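Worked example 2:
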Amino acid sequence: MVGHSWRQPASELLSSGDVGGYLPLRQAIATYLGAVRDVRCQTEQVFITFGAQQTIDMVARATIDPGDHVWVENPGYAG
C-alpha cells in the first residue's frame, strides 16, 4: 500500500495544502476528541504540527507580544 501511495499520490498531498494540516486528519482528530475526550471543537480549531518545539513556538508567537514578561519552568523544555 505504501508503494502504491508513493507511485500514485493524491494531488492534495503534493501541494502545500492547508496551513492547519491535512484536512482529513484534522477532521478525524476533532471527531475523536468529541467522542472519546468530550472536548467540543471544530475542525478549524485543530492544527497539525511537526512536534513539541514547533507547537510551543506557534503558541508563543500567537499569545505573547514583544516585550512581554513570561515565566518559564526550570528545569524546563530545553528546545
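The mean pLDDT is 88. Helices lie at 2-7, 11-14, 23-36, 52-63.
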